[in-house]
Design brief:
99 residues, alpha+beta, 3-stranded antiparallel sheet, globular, 35% helix, 3 strands
Length: 99
C-alpha cells in the first residue's frame, strides 16, 4: 500500500446555502472527513454544497489548498488565512475529543 503522501488527495470546498465559502480542506477520504467535521465543527449545519477536486498526491493537494484559502478567504479556515473569523484548529478539536 502506498504511503499517504503518494496517494490521491482531495481538496474540498464547503458552501452555505447563500453561496458563501465556509471552508476549504484536504483529505484522502472525504466521507470520513465530513463525518468528523459533523462531530467537531459548530458551523457544519450551514453546509449545503460540497465541491471535491482530486489531486495526484498530497503535496500537490496541500499546495492547491493553501493557495485556495489565501485567494478565496473561507469563513472558517485558520490555516493559511490572512485575517478574519477563525474556527478552532483541527489539532485543538482532536485534543478536545480525546481528552
Amino acid at each position: 500500500m502506498p504511503d499517504i503522501e503518494s496517494q490521491p488527495t482531495a481538496v474540498y470546498r464547503l458552501y452555505a446555502r447563500d453561496g458563501r465559502l465556509l471552508y476549504v480542506g484536504m483529505t484522502n477520504n472525504p466521507d470520513v472527513r465530513f463525518d468528523y467535521h459533523a462531530l467537531t465543527k459548530r458551523w457544519w449545519h450551514l453546509v449545503e454544497k460540497r465541491n471535491i477536486e482530486w489531486h495526484s498526491d498530497r503535496a500537490s493537494a496541500r499546495q492547491y489548498e493553501a493557495a485556495a484559502i489565501k485567494a478565496e478567504s473561507p469563513v472558517h479556515n485558520a490555516m493559511h488565512a490572512a485575517a478574519g473569523p477563525h474556527d478552532t484548529p483541527l489539532r485543538e478539536a482532536r485534543q478536545k475529543l480525546s481528552g
